[in-house]
Design a protein that fits this description.
CATH architecture: Orthogonal Bundle
Largest sheet: 5 strands, mixed
Strand order of the largest sheet: 1-2-8-5-3
Order of helices and strands: HHEEHEHHHHEHHHHHHHHEEEEHHEE
Structural class: alpha+beta
Helix content: 40-55%
Distance between the termini: 49 Å
Number of strands: 10
CATH class: Mainly Alpha
Shape: globular
Oligomer: single chain
CATH topology: Cytochrome p450
Length: about 400
């Protein structure tokens, strides 16, 4: 174990945010677990440990299924943040069995592989249209003009949100996701609460409309979903599920798209190989998700004491699993700092693992492949127009913008 004062890890330092991977290498070299006082968390940087802990039932995304805040030694969230926590705490991502099991089972009945696969032509057509507009304009901001509108439109189409209602979806999502950064500010919390209220109110009205007139969409499917015990989703569970699907369904895709293309621009020999052989797109998508991971950190509460490499981490502590570090672990990935679009043995954990494995991973892969293919085919001369700025976030790693020319 290493004291935090001795670590290069600093999630608020611009230099670290620009390139955290050298600091991750130091963490891995210096041990399997490190206490970091500024966030009161235990950092876990190795792939084997992260992979095992994601499946370890002694850890949980919540502790409230077993303990009160006081019993767990934690302070309840401020009352003014209640709308955010009500929304967040009823979603699959922040629940543990048996509630997680029940909700995921019901959501899976509506969010089927067939449902996702049926969207493939729509996704490719939309990606083609967005890239054509980018080409007609002679370039633009790849994030604003492609990375953001594509997944937002896809998940909105899937949920059955009318096109005229979609403008607030990305701002709501961005404000809610601000609460997942380390030590969010009071202003960030206030924005998340406001977005939680507005998004919940909108979905409550949409659910009421779909109850009256069901359609061929995911909201209608969630309303109809039940199992042999006639379990159904509550209204709050449906609202939280829709928000989770939107947030998780496009935040990672937006960041994954721009991170990937910036990585390709900085590795011109790999970009040239991809342009010469579009059949590399599937392995390229996986490698790019590994190489510059959109979700850098995933948190879990310690429900029962655990030991890592001789260090006991007590119940009530919080573990921060460093996905970006795990995805660069040389014990698992040969030459991990090299972008290799032909990499076949690629057990990255960018979509997590265990019971919280991303339910939307198949859709994210379709979206990333569609946008990559559209850019390769329709904008073969795509190039950066200047150096992009990193967003001042660590957990959700992305860019402020990625300006390009065609």
């Amino acid at each position: 174990m290493t004291a935090e004062s001795d670590l290069a890890f600093d999630p608020w330092d611009p230099g670290f945010l620009a390139d955290p991977y050298p600091a991750f290498a130091e963490l891995r070299e210096r041990g399997r677990v490190h206490y970091y006082a500024p966030t009161d968390q235990w950092l876990v940087p190795h792939h084997a440990d992260v992979s095992a802990l994601l499946r370890d039932r002694r850890l949980g995304r919540t502790y409230l299924h077993r303990f009160s805040h006081e019993e767990f030694g934690r302070t309840p969230p401020p009352p003014e943040q209640e709308p955010f926590h009500t929304l967040n705490d009823h979603g699959m991502l922040d629940l543990e069995p048996p509630d997680h099991t029940r909700i995921r089972r019901l959501v899976t009945k509506a969010f089927t592989p067939r449902t996702v696969e049926r969207l493939r032509p729509y996704v490719q057509r939309l990606a083609n249209d967005l890239v054509d507009r980018l080409v007609e304009a002679g370039g633009g901001d790849l994030q604003r003009d492609l990375a953001e509108p594509l997944p937002v439109a896809v998940i909105a189409e899937m949920l059955g949100i009318p096109e005229a209602d979609r403008a607030p979806l990305r701002p709501w999502s961005a404000d809610i996701c601000g609460m997942y950064e380390l030590n969010p500010s009071g202003d960030a919390a206030a924005r998340a609460v406001r977005a939680s209220v507005e998004f919940s109110d909108y979905l409550r009205a949409l659910i009421a409309e779909r109850r009256r007139t069901p359609g061929d969409d995911l909201v209608s499917g969630l309303i109809a979903a039940h199992d042999e015990d006639d379990d159904r989703l509550t209204e709050q569970e449906m609202i939280s599920t829709c928000v989770l699907l939107l947030n998780a369904g496009h935040e990672a895709t937006v960041n994954g798209t721009v991170n990937s293309w910036w990585s390709l621009f900085r590795n011109p020999e790999q970009l040239a190989a991809l342009r010469a052989d579009h059949s590399l797109v599937p392995t390229a998508v996986e490698e790019l998700l590994r190489y510059d991971t959109p979700l850098q950190l995933f948190e879990r509460w310690v429900l029962d004491d655990i030991e890592i490499d001789g260090t006991t981490i007590p119940r009530g502590a919080e573990i921060a699993m460093l996905f970006g570090s795990a995805n660069h672990d040389p014990a698992v990935f040969a030459d991990p700092g090299r972008l290799d679009l032909t990499r076949r043995d690629n057990p990255h954990i960018s979509f997590s693992a265990g019971i919280h494995y991303c339910i939307g991973a198949p859709l994210a892969r379709i979206e990333l492949a569609a946008s990559t293919t559209a850019l390769l085919e329709r904008a073969p001369g795509l190039r950066p127009a200047g150096e992009p700025r990193r967003r001042p976030n660590f957990v959700m790693r992305g860019l402020e913008a990625l300006h390009v020319e065609v």
